[in-house]
Amino acid sequence: METVLSGIRSTGNLHLGNYYGALRNFVKMQQENKCFFFIADYHSLTTHPDPKLLHGNVKNVLTEYLAAGIDPEISTIYVQSDVPEVCELYLLLNMHAYMGELAKTSSFKEKARKHPDNINAGLLTYPTLMAADILMHNADKVPVGKDQEQHLEMTRKFARRFNNLYQVEYFKEPVAYNFGNELIKIPGLDGSGKMGKSEGNCIYLNEDPKSIEKKVKRALTDSGPTVPNSPKPDCIENLFTILKVVSTDDVVAHFEEKWNTAEIRYGDLKKQLAEDIIKTIAPIRERILAIQNDDDYLHKVAMQGREKARESASKTLREVREIMGIRSF
Ligand code: TRP
Fold this sequence. Notes:
Blueprint: E1 3-9, H1 16-32, E2 34-40, H2 41-44, H3 51-68, E3 76-79, H4 85-94, H5 99-103, H6 106-114, H7 121-124, H8 126-136, E4 141-142, H9 149-165, E5 175-176, H10 209-217, H11 234-246, H12 249-260, H13 266-291, H14 295-324
Parallel strand pairs: 1-2, 2-3, 4-5
Helix pairs in contact: 3-13, 4-8, 4-14, 8-9, 10-13, 11-13
This protein binds tryptophan.
The site of tryptophan has 13 residues, from strand 1 and helix 8.
């Protein structure tokens, strides 16, 4: 069985795009692999989140992962800062991570350009911390989006470098977990290609029906087709893309037909779309509401995950220290 590690930054609530982009596939992935899911709260510190909000964000992600079907009895789900071993491995890996290569990472350059007043060392060494997360469990595979591919490539480079330097075959070189065509990209309701938190066009998994109706009602549309069989503009294509995900084939066929005959009423389309989005997320939302105030359960799950993650991490660290020649008296 292969080991898969998935990390998510703790920056708030999960949305429909997260669910169809990855989360839903994770539920199956965990049946076929030895999976670690963790919440990268150390990574989120690079942007100096309000301490009063940090824990709540971690809790949201934990709650929503569990609600979406990550099973703590099958997988290991933990919070990064609960596993201190990662800090030591990060420090050790940093000794072989070079300023030049870190500084030319795309994510670093972009953050540095956007926030010139906060170019901190944590941001510079973000890829080393990520490599520590991955190498700590000797993961074979890591599900990553496009924006994280370079980080995974750097992890491979750090692993290779370590092996070469110490003349060992210790770290594996992790590759991207490929979901093939099961990955569904959910577009935004604002006509943009992607639903994303920073785009502000999301429908959240814990969102209440009224609010979903409002958002869908406000979704960008055009003035409607005037001739039959016209090509759909992006904003309408987007609504159909989401409809295909949440509605039945009959419903989709009905609105395709209405579009093709140029009789479509966007009000009807939106009403149906909102209804089916609400129906789709209802079971997840119910579980979120049930778990989020169950502190005992969340505590139990987090401690169980911490235990399992530390077991795997401390083994790696013991071996890495040995390879590097660190010994205590
Ligand atoms: N950098 C990742 C992101 O922003 C989160 C992350 C941190 C991660 N460590 C990881 C992802 C290790 C995969 C493996 O999405």
